Hints:
alpha/beta, D-Maltodextrin-Binding Protein, domain 2, five-stranded mixed beta sheet
Amino acid sequence: MKLHMLILGLCSASALAFAAHAESITIATVNNGDMVRMQKLTDDFTSKNPDIQLNWVTLEENVLRERVTTDIATKGGQYDVMTIGTYEVPIWAKQNWLLPLDNLGADYDASDIIPAIAGGLSVDGKLFAAPFYGESSFVMYRKDLMEKAGLQMPDAPTWEFIRQAADKMTDRANGVNGVCLRGKAGWGENMAFLTAMSNSYGARWFDEKWVPQFDQPEWKNTLQSYVDLMKADGPEGASSNGFNENLALFQQGKCGMWIDATVAASFVSDPKNSTVADKVGYALAPDNGLGKRGNWLWAWSLAVPAGTQKAEAAQKFVSWATSKAYLELVASKEGWANVPPGTRSSLYNNPEYQKAAPFAKMTLDSINAADPTKPTVKPVPYVGVQFVAIPEFQGLGTTVGQLFSAALAGQMSVDDALKQAQDAATSTMKEGGYIQ
Length: 436
């Protein structure tokens, strides 16, 4: 009995000693489906790394951005791993706020990351964040309605074709809108779509000397075309619709076409949630023959802040969550169609994924069509496809988004919206010291 108690005591003591040596890392992440799923699968990580404990802080997107930005700017050291986007990486890396990810392990295979995605997460050839999932944008359309309209969607449509198709597919009597596009104000909502669209019209936010360009004809053509198209063929109340609202409309059969994030493809083609799952086709985002398509580039990614005291453990976790092995883990539990998309070339060469995801090739082609280092027809001093990678863009992008949303709602003219956008951008750039 005494021996038994002694053994138990020794076991308890060693367990306590182990717990004392276990390193705890705190991960700040966004509350989307892929990240929530990752948390449920972390037993795989902790079984391989029993000396590392994981603490989670899971937040809504806007709150997450606010918290991690404050923490990293003040060197608060609250988080060891942060979920950030393609917008933050080049800005924060240049401020020396992020550690380069140079310790991800021998079998990580960073060269397998899709080049366009890696380019958006690198500075001077060094990777500063590892992509958890990546996306571009493309056209999702109803094949049955396109056929009924007597048209065939090209793999690479023009904006003119989109306009013609939308007109023919609109059927107000039956609640069908020819096209659904983002109208909700926000730098990551309507301005993600409109900035990408403007690239294909030859527009840009700033010229090479950081002078705002909303007073130029290319922006007038972009915004006028968008407002006219949405008035003729878009849903009622479109100025309140963002990604989630348009997803619901499309799944309910109320959109002939929807131009939005490639990550939406798995949702619109899921028969459990989409009434049109078996009728969806995919095409590249439209262009105007100027050499740029109206598609964006984004990746939710994991980064290690420079203020962490636990860099080695943090990089181990980042490596696990963004590895090829993690994709296989998700596939074994949830099926290949639910694997986080858009990060690794090997996924798109996998016959099982190709079979499970009919949108795979068009997703990869869309990602590859975006170049964050040369996003526009004319030269620009910034990187970013649907955003400008400067700290001032969050506030300015949202201000401009509110103006353009008001133009869509008919609360102001396109000319007024563009004039006010030009004034706001000029004021911001003067305050920031970019222009005199």
